[in-house]
Amino acid sequence: MSVSSTIFGKTKSGQTIKEFTLENQNGAKVTLLTYGAIISGIHIPMADGSVRNVVIGYDDLAAYEEDNFYLGSTVGRVANRIANGSFTLGGKTYELAVNNGPNHLHGGLVGFNQKVWEAEVFAENTVKMSVLSKDGDEGYPGDMVINVTFELREDDQLVIEYHATASADTVINLTNHSYFNLDGRSSKSCLDHELKLEAKTFAVADETAIPTGEQREVAGTPFDFSSFKKLGQDIAADDEQIKFGNGYDHHYIMGDFTAKPRLNAEAKSADGQLRMKVYSTMPGFQLYTGNYLGEKFEARQAFCIETQNAPDAINQTVFPSAVLARGERYEQKTVLEFLK
């Protein structure tokens, strides 16, 4: 097990960005950038001697600075959407940037994905990244200190732990926004992957991807992945929810926050040679099939399983609370396990 680092580049403003590499005894490697606390690569050695990088990303820092799709990044303060860019907390209404149709998305105009994080080798197999989000940052109240640790274990598990505290009551919903293709970065479609999801319900959304409050059973719908099914099987179904998202871009509901990670999802590569299991303490996850990926990638080249609280949870009582109270500690964990 080893951790090494190198200079990845400099931002347009002149800040130096490092790339950290975690490597285990199996030869698996995870690369991390201090820009956006980004997972830039997950390299899995295969039985035939080849190595698959199972997340899509860019080769240079300039491309990450121009990225609009949050590739591999740590997203916050609030991942996903807040309706109309507005919420009320402690009797005060806070107005945020509206950067996704009528809504606030993934922390605003300059979210955590665009910040330069401090990094340190936390253990022989772990890197800890930290950032300070000051009171008023993107309109959110309170100073918030965020620490995210990335640990690569010998059993090919990547463990991501989120920790945060704030100086005032505020809102939080952190996630990692990696896009996966288990056939490797060179593969141009994820639709032949097979997926199995543990969630029994999903959050029905309006045409702007804000939950309506209805939690619908997946059984009998295109959202049913209770047994392994190809991602592309129902992605063009004659279904209003599918049409709203131009595919899958929906929150699956697991329940409340949990003390220990539980299985959320399992995916198989199209060739059946690699599997990924996703575990989390979060109350749900967003399934996104990369329906919009710009000019550098193909639409639906890769998919996301974004473990998180529900979209617009701060405005909807049907979901677990998105409030981080002053003096409390936010602690969540996601585990990605790779199996051959």
UniProtKB/TrEMBL annotation:
Pathway: Carbohydrate metabolism; hexose metabolism. Transmembrane segments: none annotated. CDD domains: galactose_mutarotase_like. It is an enzyme of class 5 (isomerase). Coiled coil: none annotated. InterPro entries: Ald1_epimerase_CS, Aldose_1-epimerase, Aldose_1/G6P_1-epimerase, Gal_mutarotase_sf_dom, Galactose_mutarotase-like, GH-type_carb-bd. SUPFAM superfamilies: Galactose mutarotase-like. Its EC number is 5.1.3.3. PANTHER family: ALDOSE-1-EPIMERASE, GALACTOSE MUTAROTASE. Monomer. NCBIfam families: PRK11055.1. Belongs to the aldose epimerase family. This is Aldose 1-epimerase. The lineage of its organism: Bacteria, Pseudomonadati, Bacteroidota, Cytophagia, Cytophagales.
